[in-house]
Amino acid sequence: MWPETVAVTGAGSGIGRAVLVAAAARGARVAALDVDASAATAAAAAARAAGAADAVAVACDVSSEASVATAFAAVADAVGDPGAVFANAGIEVNAPVHAFPAADWERVVAVNLVGVFLTCREALRRLVDAGRGGSVVCTSSPAAFVGHSGGGNSAYAASKGGVSAFVRSAALDYAPHGIRVNAVVPGATDTAMLTAGGADPDRIRAAAATQVPLGRLGRPDEVAAAVLWLLSEESSYVTGSHLVCDGGLMAKSANDF
Predict the structure, then answer these.
(1) Is 250 within 8 Å of 220 (Cβ atoms)?
(2) For residue 31, which of 7, 74, 77, 233 is within the disulfide window of CB 3.0 to 4.6 Å?
(3) Which CATH class for the 5-245 domain?
(4) What is one Pfam family matched by this protein (predicted)?
């Protein structure tokens, strides 16, 4: 059984947009939430073109409690309370710890970790009230489990490590309600976020691809397929888990001998 309404944060681009469109192709009603209102609107239009039963675009800053609450109320009014939620919005800022501005570090944690908490809290409140179960998927990262060879990854790694711990805890809390909470762990995926802030995007893509055992970057639609499985009843006995979709990156030792 597929959830009637699916809400996605960070839906304006990359993996979030791919999940939104994939859910739409299954005939779901979808809600595109993004801090960039125009990107959310474009994603919702793409979802309608893909076959969504209905689609709504909502501007949402996941680091703001008021913004998340307002966004979910707007989703409920437009397409109904979601039975499946993908808490995906995230940012990345890199710097060595000794040179990391506190404001930037806090902003990464505010979006990536606090934003997941606020999104999930709103979703879980509504799912518990509805009393019909549901599925929540959060975006973690290999950085939650292993160090980033590029360095300067402390804020992002800390935020994603927090997401992974949060998922395990929330899964236990909400299992009695029939609500499943899981994480997807995308590796190097060909999105704008991969090269954000880099002076040479092509060099970054090529360098990242050489580190992946499968020899290439992931596509957003490949990660979306993993997320869709977790959101659907096809994974009905899966909760508190991490589905790694990284081309083998985390299985590889850094030692080449």
Answers:
(1) no
(2) 7
(3) alpha beta
(4) adh_short_C2
